[in-house]
DNA sequence: TATTGTTATACTCTATAACTATA
DNA sequence: TATAGTTATAGAGTATAACAATA
């Protein structure tokens, strides 16, 4: 049931993200970067539950579009600090607005109590 | 959040299913066949949200292991009726028991009310 | 002509191991 | 020697179209 619900949401997200020209994983990366809790590529990959080697081409694309910057970490020159640009923040905000709208439509199928419980429970699973 | 929760459950399922020698999609097929609501291969594929051409090798495997039978539909000789064998039912029951145990452990993290609401809400999403 | 099951093929996604540069 | 980022490659998963048999 979880997988089915997740697939439904992902399918609903796909056209919205495509309209903004970002893939699902790119969107996930932007979202986590906006939180600022994953400064380095490895930390970001782990936070996303993604592989560091697969993350590279995602970041390559985002960097080429000017949505993020990669700069060497002064305290450890092996590592690279990934940061959102102003464009990146704008793109994320625009995409998030569309997705929130879609999510609100889906959640409207539930009662207020159900919505509350679902949103409280999901992060704990 | 949905995708993350679904992934967690799927990861927890993987070793259990492997111990029984069935893949995730094979398990899904067995589960739907047990309900008897998807008699033909096409109906089964649609019920699983899977592609009919990908389903073939799943069924090939299940048939080779003696867990299902494929027989021509007398009313439409293009179609094949897929049915669980006694072995198939036994295999499914054994796997389901392990998975239910795992699910109970996960759900034990929630309160009774939360469990009830979650299980009522998920099928509707 | 359309549909069921099947096969083949191309394409994407994923996992793994190696390489570099730093530590 | 170990780690962060990168690259390359092989394998699994997926999508698509074509085909034979039947409707």
Radius of gyration of chain A: 16 Å
Shape descriptor of chain A: globular
Question: Share of helix among residues of chain A?
Answer: 55-70%
Work out the oligomeric state of the chains in this entry.
homodimer
**Fraction of residues in β-strands of chain A:** 5-15%
* Number of E strands of chain A: 2
Characteristics of this structure?
alpha+beta, 125 residues, two-stranded antiparallel sheet, 67% helix, homodimer, DNA-binding
Characterization of the model:
Two copies of one chain form a homodimer. Chain A has 125 residues and is α+β, with helices and mostly antiparallel strands. Chain A is 67% helix and 12% strand. Chain A is built from six helices and two strands; from the N terminus they run H-H-H-H-E-E-H-H. In chain A, strands 1-2 form a two-stranded antiparallel sheet. In chain A, a hairpin with a 2-residue loop joins strand 1 (68-73) and strand 2 (76-84). The interface between A and B is medium-sized, with 24 and 24 residues. Chain A binds a DNA duplex (23 and 23 nucleotides) through helix 4 and strand 2.
Topology overview:
2 copies of one chain form a homodimer.
Chain A (H helix, E strand, L loop, with lengths): L1 H19 L3 H12 L5 H8 L3 H13 L3 E6 L2 E9 L1 H22 L4 H10 L4
Antiparallel strand pairs in A: 1-2
The first copy, chain A, binds a DNA duplex (23 and 23 nucleotides) through α4 and β2.
